[in-house]
UniProtKB/TrEMBL annotation:
Lineage: Bacteria, Bacillati, Actinomycetota, Actinomycetes, Kitasatosporales
Keyword Metal-binding included in the entry's annotation: no
Pathway involvement of the protein, from the record: Amino-acid biosynthesis; L-histidine biosynthesis; L-histidine from 5-phospho-alpha-D-ribose 1-diphosphate: step 7/9
GO biological process assignments: L-histidine biosynthetic process
Catalytic activity: L-histidinol phosphate + 2-oxoglutarate = 3-(imidazol-4-yl)-2-oxopropyl phosphate + L-glutamate
Names of required cofactors: pyridoxal 5'-phosphate
Keywords, in A-Z order: Amino-acid biosynthesis, Aminotransferase, Histidine biosynthesis, Pyridoxal phosphate, Transferase
NCBIfam families recorded: hisC (TIGR01141), PRK03317.1 (NF002877)
Record-linked Gene3D superfamilies: Aspartate Aminotransferase, domain 1 (3.90.1150.10), Type I PLP-dependent aspartate aminotransferase-like (Major domain) (3.40.640.10)
Gene Ontology molecular function, alphabetical: histidinol-phosphate transaminase activity; pyridoxal phosphate binding
Protein name per the record: Histidinol-phosphate aminotransferase
Length: 370
């Protein structure tokens, strides 16, 4: 008889046994609003500029890339300074293949075996998975029923567990709401009193926010890290470019774990081209913010509950059986996301036509349900 080797037959680490990989189900349906992507393809002049810069890079592909990505970090610092209300230098910026890799490097440096990290859930589930992958213990911290962070309970959890790394996602995924600066400051103080620990603010969606980036909080807080990505606002999820801003010492520290030449010359050239077109791309962000606000208003008008959103997606409910509703929306040709938050689903803001298709589907569904 034939024996098929399964993952668990292999001598893998115990903590990986029986686990499934991260990933949203991808289905071939007309309207896909499930992964918080930017629905707008890059503008043609930018596509042409990428081709130009990648051609230049290709002529030197026999050489390793700039290991320290100095030009890219300089341009990212310029972007943050221009948009974040705070002067940032290239020594404060580090980049990697998506913010997931940035977060992994942070946990490899500041977490790891015998150490712990805390997040306030529901939140971005990769924080817990990257913790597991780096051998970092995970602590699930609390949130209120309205998905705001219960600051007093969070302070108690930090004091009790004394985690080495604290994750704060703002705007939060999958709920959409932003965390007020005062709450972040309170948790930073609690984390410093407890250990001190590294506080990582994941601002993947901050360009879509009604409010401001927390970059100015970096001043005088050497254990604070702001994580960013070009996957959402820059419409470049396929590029895989994430970055962080922090005290230069944090940037020096992650050098201890980063793989040499982790950012390819092609990636660096492409990201630099995209940064040349920042203004055009931020124009799309404005359009998406308007569409996000429209989704919130229309969902409420139809009679759904909606969590306040500062992101490019909206959490709506409440449903007795969210997964059954997810399926009914899918039957109407629209793929949204069931993140496993009981009673709630998440829809990413798409083009006006995609959002109309989604709104038609849930309007129709409301009639069926009532
Ligand atoms: N942080 C948050 C909160 C996210 O939602 C995502 C993407 N879903 C990421 C980080 C990772 O993005 P990337 O690796 O594409 O930069």
């Amino acid at each position: 008889s034939e024996h098929v080797t399964r993952i668990d037959d292999l001598p893998i680490r115990d903590e990986l046994r029986g686990k499934s990989p991260y990933g949203a189900p991808q289905l071939d349906v007309p309207v896909r609003l499930n992964t918080n992507e930017n629905p707008y393809p890059l503008p043609e002049p930018l596509v042409a500029r990428i081709a130009e810069r990648v051609t230049e890079a290709a002529r030197e592909l026999n050489r390793y890339p700039d290991r320290d990505a100095v030009e890219l970090r300089t341009e990212l610092a310029r972007y943050l300074t221009r948009t974040g209300g705070h002067q940032v230098t290239k020594d404060q910026v580090w980049a990697a293949n998506g913010s997931n890799e940035v977060l992994q490097q942070l946990l490899q440096t500041f977490g790891g075996p015998g150490r712990t990290a805390i997040g306030f859930e529901p939140s971005y589930s990769m924080h817990a998975l990257i913790a597991r992958g780096t051998g970092t213990g995970w602590i699930s911290g609390p949130r209120n029923d309205d998905f705001t962070i219960d600051v007093a309970a969070a302070e108690r959890a930090i004091a009790e567990h004394r985690p080495h790394v604290v994750f704060i996602t703002t705007p939060n995924n999958p709920t959409g709401n932003a965390v007020p600066a005062e709450a972040v400051l309170a948790l930073y103080e609690a984390a410093q009193a407890a250990r001190p620990s590294l506080v990582v603010v994941d601002e993947a969606y901050v360009e879509f926010s009604h409010g401001d980036s927390l970059l100015p909080l970096l001043d005088g807080r050497p254990h604070l890290v702001i994580s960013r990505t070009m996957s959402k606002a820059f419409g470049a999820a396929g590029l895989r470019l994430g970055y962080l801003a922090a005290d230069p010492a944090v940037v020096d520290a992650v050098q201890l774990v980063r793989l040499p030449y982790h950012l390819s010359s092609v990636t660096q050239a492409t990201a630099l081209a995209a940064l040349e077109h920042t203004d055009t791309l931020l124009g799309y962000v404005d359009q998406l913010k308007r569409e996000r606000d429209r989704l919130v208003a229309e969902l409420r008008a139809i009679g759904y509950d909606v969590t306040e959103s500062d992101a490019n997606f909206v959490q709506f409910g409440r449903f007795e059986d969210a997964h059954a509703i997810w399926r009914k929306i899918l039957d109407r040709g629209v793929l949204v996301r069931d993140n496993g938050v009981p009673g709630w689903l998440r829809v990413s803001a798409g083009t006006p036509a995609e959002n109309d298709a989604f709104l038609d589907a849930v309007r129709d569904l409301k009639k069926e349900l009532s």
